Amino acid sequence: MRLTPGPAHGIDLEAVNLFDLDLYSSGDPHRIWDVMRAKAPLHHQVLPDGREFWSVTRYEDVHRVLAGHREFTSERGTVPTHLGTDDAAAGVLMTSTDPPRHTEVRRPLGSRLTARAVRSWEDGIRATVARFLEPALDGEVFDLAERALLLPAMVTGPLLGIPEKDWAELVQLTAMVTAPTDPHFMVGHEAATLAISHHELVTYVREWVKARRASGEEDDSLLHHLMSVRPGGEPLSDEEIALDGYSILLGANVTTPHTVSGTVEALIERPAQYAKAAADPSLVPGLVEEGLRWTSAACNFMRYAVDDVEIAGGTIPAGGAVVAWIGSANRDETLFPAPHTFDITRAGAKRQAAFGFGTHFCIGAPLARMTLRIFFEELLRRFESVELAGEPQHLRSYFIAGMTHLPIVARKRRTP
Prior knowledge:
The protein is of the alpha+beta class. The protein has a domain at 89-301 and 335-412: CATH 1.10.630.10. The chain is 44% helix and 12% strand. The chain is built from 17 helices and 12 strands. It has helices spanning 21-25, 29-39, 59-67, 101-110, 115-118, 122-133, 144-148, 151-160, 167-178, 190-215, 222-226, 238-253, 256-269, 271-279, 284-295, 326-329, 365-382; strands spanning 42-46, 52-56, 72-73, 142-143, 300-305, 309-311, 314-316, 321-325, 383-388, 393-394, 403-405, 407-412. The strands form 4 sheets. The protein has a 5-stranded mixed beta sheet. A 3-stranded antiparallel beta sheet has the order 4-12-9. A two-stranded antiparallel ribbon has the order 6-7. A hairpin with a 5-residue loop joins strand 1 (42-46) and strand 2. Helix 6 (122-133) crosses helix 17. The two termini are 40 Å apart. The mean pLDDT is 92.
């Protein structure tokens, strides 16, 4: 997906297919979202197979859909790949559950992931980022997007209690879930890719729990902590732990790599912004927020209307699927002036919607923010400049906006 769009001329919304994967792998959905926000803030589309959905693209409407679980339920599925077939794990899987159960499972985990709690991990994460960047110091071509897929596992693997030998496999499986038609991750066809990845991830967590119970070992990992969660006063079954662990693995691995790659690409295209951030490290937190807004790696989330809902000048019927386009909300000109300008000093960038809203606001947001801050502090400290060394290749997914390849050459900073 192009993150810097072209002009929004000649867009026929009647002919637009928001599930066209080519639109995201090689096209420009931002031009379409611009027109939708202006002319059709509630857009209805019927797919050739008869499935239908409504779209909201303005910030305030995206906020309402994602934050309002009484109007818009998560308990039929929350990603567009589930459209037309309710999520079999809905009501159990944390991401596909509404309060009160969602809150009862999430709260004890969230207490381990507050900004204060994750602060103690900073030195370890900094060492991990330094190790990640080490291969780029020799000045050779470094495929940032390909390598960054492993970065979240390097950071969160020890926190989750997952051994290093399993990181690469789990990263591959989570990528298969979120981009099942991308040729880098597809196995046979889309349905097979989803079935294999779902099965393998849930089985991994199930076997992890089984092994821990058999050994009697206890540790401070998040997966082990999940074993002690008691929603409604009752412990989770091993199957429930497996499904929630699957959800945590997806959340941990999926978006951060693409935020890293997309933000670095933006800085490459705007060397003055890179130089400004390098000269003043206090600008890095703002760079992170602008990068989150700019990339919107989790491009959308889906909900279902509980009853008829009037929104954005129209009505979504009871039971209707609605896709809230985060990538569009983060370019809403009413909240972000000059939204297609990447500006690390942007006032109000922290209002970006990349982490969602409401009860499903990303539980790992404090850890993600800290990881991204440390990454850019270390990148800017080590390298005088970063340049493209080939064409970026974009992910074939309408759910995750990202890249599979971003070849770069980083010029090591001269020491005084």
